[in-house]
Design a protein that fits this description.
With 216 residues, this protein is an alpha+beta fold. It has five helices and six strands.
């Protein structure tokens, strides 16, 4: 029979075993690992806290600025949209002014010449009324000129006329109506203004020194 070789198992004493285990676990001792970690000083922690506070404050200030800019952008966009809606038809309405001028001249001419075809005159007058209804819808209205003080923002003086009945720079005649749309000028009124007798026919006043007056 084949003899089975017995394997000898080393036997350690309790003391040797304990020393061996201690050597193996020496590197993994959590207590010693904790002790080897460097501790942050109080000043470093305070510095980090202060830095975090400053960063948070900067972020909050940036947030406030962006919010304010966005609100301003919304208001500006709203104004631009409203402005566009108000004056979207400005060029078309401005072109219609010449049509109104011609129709009004036709009515005035028929009345001055004593034309008896009242049906045509009435039809033209009704057409003018309909156009003015459209103007009213878009807040287009004539500029008041007659017997008003000359205003270079709304009037264009083409002539001065000597008179003793009015003070200087009063609108005596309106050669062409002026119109405004909302608060914007569509077309200035062409007018003749008053001038005291004996004065030079130069300029209307200091405010309108850029407007040249044609002598009558």
């Amino acid at each position: 029979m084949t003899e089975t070789k017995s394997k000898k198992i080393p036997i350690y004493s309790e003391t040797e075993k304990t020393d061996s285990d201690r050597k193996k676990n020496k590197k993994h001792d959590p207590e010693k690992v904790k002790k080897t970690k460097p501790k942050a000083s109080l000043k470093e922690l305070e510095s980090k806290l202060e830095s975090a506070k400053n960063e948070a404050k900067e972020n909050y200030d940036r947030f406030l600025r962006v919010s304010a800019e966005f609100e301003n952008y919304k208001k500006r966009s709203t104004r631009q949209i409203d402005e566009f809606r108000k004056f979207a038809n400005e060029s078309l309405l401005k072109d219609m002014l010449c049509v109104v001028d011609n129709l009004e001249r036709a009515v005035d001419s028929s009345q001055n010449d004593g034309v008896k075809n009242h049906t045509i005159v009435k039809g033209v007058t009704l057409t003018i009324d309909e156009i003015f209804k459209i103007f009213k819808k878009f807040n287009v209205k004539p500029i008041l000129s007659l017997n008003e003080s000359f205003d270079p923002n709304f009037h264009q003086a083409v002539m001065q006329e000597e008179t003793e009945d009015y003070p200087d720079n009063v609108v005596l005649k309106e050669l062409q109506k002026g119109y405004q749309m909302h608060d914007r000028l569509l077309r200035p009124a062409m007018v003749i203004v008053s001038k005291s007798k004996g004065e030079k026919n130069d300029l209307i006043n200091d405010e309108t020194d850029k407007i040249k007056i044609e002598k009558k």
